[in-house]
Amino acid sequence: MAARQRASRTDVPMATGVAWPRPSMWWSAVCVLAGLAIGGACAPGTSGSGGAPRRAGRSDRPLSCPPDMVLVTGGVFLSGADPEEVGVSPLGRALGFVPRPVRMVEVGDFCMDRYEFPNQPGVLPVRSISWIQAAEACRERGKRLCFEAEFERACGGLDGWHQPYGGRDDPGRCNDYAPGPGSVSHLLAPSGDFFGCVGPEGAYDLEGNLSEWVAPDEGPPAVLLEPGDWTEPAGPADGIVRGGTIWPGVYGSGCHARHFHPADASAYEDDGFRCCMTPRGIQARK
Which class does domain 13-277 fall in? Predict the structure, then answer.
């Protein structure tokens, strides 16, 4: 399969509507360091339709995560892609399974599970689980579902890579090019088996294996609800699923692949999840 090169973008809008130049790797690093120094970010803005997880207030303690999670540094990053870059099929476009628009987004520091749930290397990830069940499983472990912007930042890095390992497709590096639809049980790989399929901070399988349920960026995280309190509209009518799965399928592949399913549906055997949390040393998000 021919490799797809991420398109060149010289000017990308900030979520606030202000045009900002596409950051190079060194400028992205400056942004992060500046944010660490002054407790903010190098440019104002929010994510999505109005509420990316923002940089939380800091204490004097250093940031840390549990040993089975990776620390992802927040700041301003390049979000979104064109449908052509992701490989969305005509049917996928008709269903609305398209990436978020290209823009600069701000996200706070966060911890992310290193592997898909149950977050154990060499173990098959859990599949055929609903958004509601996934959110509750994270809550029971003192965590939460990752926000959509967090998934995109951890997968594509500050420069918005198409794949967790870079801007070009490398078939076979992630478990995302199965020969065709079939039983997931015969195609799914244990977490971490595709050792080259790792994001900038060390999270595995953000592309391929299973697509992952995420929480919407706007509003309070629904995972704060107590078990059994799941009533609409606490959980979204359609839960968001990010990343490619075992085969490119209808909605494409890579860090910017995006589709939806009913939040209470557990019939999709190629969907899973992982959990996130606020790092120790940062005040909890209200």
Answer: alpha beta
